[in-house]
Fold these 2 entries.
Entry 1:
Amino acid sequence: MQTETKERALSVIYYVGGVLMVLAVCELIPLATSLFCRETRFVFVFLAAASIMISFAAFLMLIGAGYRNVHLSFGEGMTVASVSWLMGTLLCALPYYFSGNYLSYLDCCFDVMSGLTTTGLSMIQNLDHLSNGLNMWRFLLTYIGGQGMVVLALTFVTKNAGNVYMMYVGEAKDERLRPGAVSTARAIWKISILYLIIGWIAMSIAGILAGLPWGNAILHGLWIFMSGWSTGGFAPMSQNILYYHSMIYELATVVFFTIGSFNFALHYAVLSGNKKEMRKNIEIVSFTVTLTLLSLIAAFALMHDHVYPNMAALFRKGFYQLISGHTTTGFMSLYARQIYHDWGDLAIYAMILAMLFGGSACSTAGGFKGLRIGIIFNTIRAEIRQYTIPQSRVITTKIHHIRDIVLTDSMIRSAFSIVVLYLITFSVGTVIGMAAGYSGVESAFESASVTGNVGLSIGVTAPSNPAFLKITYIIIMWLARLEFVSVLTLIAQICRRLVKR
C-alpha cells in the first residue's frame, strides 16, 4: 500500500514539473520581445528566471519520470492542478522580482496570481514606463491562465488521456467539446487562437483610430485583446481603458470581453454551425436577464443622483463598468476612487452583485457562473410549481445547455454548494478588508472583485496594503479560480497525511 501511495505521489510530482516546464518555456516569448525591443537588461532578467524555473521543473520531472503512466484519481488530478497553480505563481514571479518594479516578492506573487486567475488587480510600480518584455509577460500569463495552463501543458507532456481528464476537471473545467480531454483542450486553444488573430487586428485598428502611433497600436492591440478575451483586466497604462479616450476602443473591448466570458462549448457549437444555441442556451439567458436587471438598477441610481450628464456618459462610465464587472473582466474607463466618491450605494451594490454573478462555466470568466444561476432559478421555480399541482404528479426540471439536460439532485447540490462557498469566501474577504481599516462598502466591493476574479477596484488594492490582506486576496483568487474543489482536495489530502503520521 505504501509503495502504491509513493508511486502516485511521484506521478503527481512529475505532472507538476511538466506544467512548470511549459510555463518556463513560455518565458522565451517575453525574452524575444525584449531582444526585439533592445531591452538588454530584461533579456538577462528572463534568462535568469527561465533558467531557475527550467532547472526546478526538470528536477521534478526527473524524480517522477518513471511513474508518469500511473493512473491518477480525481483527487490526485485536482492536486496536480492546485499545486501547479501555486508553484507556478511562486516561480513566474521571478521576472517581476528581478525587474525592480515591485516593492516586495509578495507583491510579485500577488500580480502573478492576479494574472493567472484573470483577476487583473495589480501591485506594480511605474506601470506607464514598464518595459515591453515585462508587459508581454503580464499579458501572456493572463492569456495562458484564462484558457487553462495545466491542460495546455499536459497536452504536450503526456499521452495518458485519462490523467489529462482528471487534471482538466481539476482546473475547474468539465465541458467536453470533443470526445477526449486532450482533443477538448486543443479545441479550446484553437478557438482562442482564432479569436486572437481577429481580435488583434481589430484592436490594432481601433488603436490607430484612437490616435496611437502604429507601433503602440499593434502592441496595445495585442495586449488589450489578450487581457479582454481572457476577462483579465490588465492594461499597459495606469489609466486602464480611460487612457485611450475613445468610444470605438471601448466598444471593441466590450465585444471581445463579452464573447470571452461565454462558455467554450458554446463557441464550439456556434462555430460548428449551431447558431440557435446563442438564444437557447441557459447561460446566455441567465447572463442577459441578470445584466439587464442590474443595468436598470445601476442606471436608475446614477440618473437619480445626477452622476452623469447624458446617456453617452452613462454608457461609457456606468454601463461599461457594470458589464466589465459582470463578465469579470475588470477594464475601467474611470478612476477607481470615482466609483466610491461619485456613485451611490445602490449602484455600488449592483456592481458587487454583477461581479459575484460572473460569466459562463468553462470560460475565462469567474464568479458564480450563469449555468449555476440558471440551475438554481429553475430549481426554485420547479419547487414553487410543485406546490400548485396534485401531489401525485412529479415535475421533471430541464435546462438547455448545448443539449436538453434533466436536472438531477447531484447537479442541484453542486450548484448550491459552489455558490454558498463563493458567498462564504466573499464574506470572509469583506471582514478581513474591514479589519485592515477599510469601510464596509470598500471592503465588500474589493472582496467581490477578488472572489469573482474580476479586477475592478474601488481604490483598496495597493502596495501599501498590509501583508495579511495581500495574502488573503491571493488565497481567495486561487480558491475562486479553481472553484474551491481542487484546493480543498489538496488541503484534505495534506490533513489526512498529517493524521496518519
Note: The two ends are 15 Å apart (CA to CA).
Entry 2:
Amino acid sequence: MGSPSKLLPEVQAHYGRLRHYVGGEWIESKSEETLAVMNPATAREIAQVPLAATEIVDAAVAAAQAAFPAWRETPPLERGRKFFALRTLMLRDADVLARILAQDQGKTIEEARAEIQRAVENVEVAAGIPSLMMGYGLEDGAAKDIDEEVVPQPLGVFAAITPFNFPLMVAFWFLPYALATGNTYVVKPSEQAPVVWQRLMPLFAEAGFPPGVVNLVNGARETSEALVDHPDVQGVSFVGSTPVAKAVYARAGARGKRAQCGGGAKNFLVVMPDARMDHTVAAILNSAYGMAGQRCLAGAAVLAVEGAHDAFLEKFRRAAEAMRLGYGLDPATDMGPVVSEASRARIVSYVDSGVSEGAEAVLDGRTAKVPSYPGYFVGPTILDGVAPDMKIAREEVFGPVLGIMESESLDAAIERINAGPFGNAASIFTQSGAAARRFRYAARCGNLGINVGVAAPIAYFPFGGARESFFGTVHGQGRDAIRFFTQHKVVIARWS
C-alpha cells in the first residue's frame, strides 16, 4: 500500500471552538462542555464542538419560527432564484469546502469534491420548485359547478440530524426542499464532523436567504433530542444507525411529528458468471472501499453465483492490494482513514470475529500503517468463505471490509439478500436481461443497481431504503422530499 510523500499544510489546521448560527448571526455557546473534533488521518484535534444548551436550541427554533411567515409568503419563483445564487456560491467555494471535509471526515479530496457536487445537484433541483410544488385540480369534480383542487403548503420549522460520513450531502437530501417549499430549517450536524458547516452557513446569507430561514446548532445526543421534542418543530430528517433511526422515528411519532429516518445497511453485490469481470471488479472496489467503506450504500458482501467466485476473487484481490492508503488531501491517496479510533477498533473486532468463525483473511488490513500519519487507518480487507450465520455476514461493519460468499443460483442469492433485516441497497453484475429483471423484481431493497456498484440515486429521484434501513413513508430528494415538507390542502368550491 502506498502512503503520502510529505506532510501537507492542513496537518496543522485548527478551527477553534465552533459556533452556532441563529437568526443570521454567529452565537457563542453558553455551555462550557465541548467535544474534540479530530482529524482522522493525523489523530490531532482540529476543532472543539460545543454541546448546545437547551436555550440555544430554543433560540434557533424561535428564529426559524419567526422567519417562517414572511418566507412562506415569498413566491416560489423568488425562493427558487435564491437557490441559483446558492449554487453559484457553493461552486465558487467548492475547493475550500472539499478540503475542510477531507480534514474533518477523513475522505479523499476527490470523494469530498464529489460530495459537494451531490449537494449542489439537490440545490439545482430545488431551484425548480415552481413546477415541483404544483398541486392539481378538477373542474366539476363532484358535480356540476363544484371544483376541487389540492394545494401543497409548507408547515413551519423542520430539522435535520445528519451523520458523520457525508456532513453536507445528506443534509442536502432534505434542506433545499424544505426551504424551497416555504419552510424554515435547523441543522444539527454530527459532532464528529461539524467543521464544514462553519464555512457553509454564511453562503445562505450571501445568496439572499433571510435571517432565521436556515439555522445551525452544534451538539450531540441531547441537542438532537431537544430538536425532536421541541413543540414548534414540525418534522425531522435523520440518517444514522438503525437503532438510533428507530428511536428517533418513535420519539418523533409519539409527539405527532413527521419523520424520515435512514438506518443501517448490509448491502450485497451479486456477481453472475457472465459478468464483465474487469468492470465488475472496478465497480465493487469503489463500492467496498470508497469512503473507507463508511457509506450506507457501500458493498459489504459479494454473492458469487455458479462458479464466478475464483475469477472474481483473484482479480479483486490484486486490485485491492494496489490501493494506496493515506491522508485524503494527498492526491496520491486512494483510501483515507476511518472516522475515529473507536470506529477502527470496532471494524478490527468484526474482522477478528470473522476469522475466528472460519473466514479466511485473503487480504488483511487490520495492522495497516501510514508513515507520518498516526491516524485511524484500516486497510482494504477481504474475507473469503464467509457463511450466512457468521456475525460479519449479519451485522453492519461500516468499514473497508468485503466478505465473499458463494451462492448456488441467482434465486438463492436473492433469498439470502431478503433473509437479512436490512433493505438499503443491492446490486447485480450480469449481461443477462432476464437475470437483471428477476433481481429487480424480487430483491427487497430500496436502491438496486444493475452493473452499478453504488446504487446512489441522483437528486431527481428519492434516496430509497426499506425494512430496517428506513423508517417513514417518503424519502429524501426529489418528489418524495417535496411531499414530506408540504401539507396537501384539499379545496372544494361551488360557484353557481
Note: The first helix runs from residue 54 to 73.
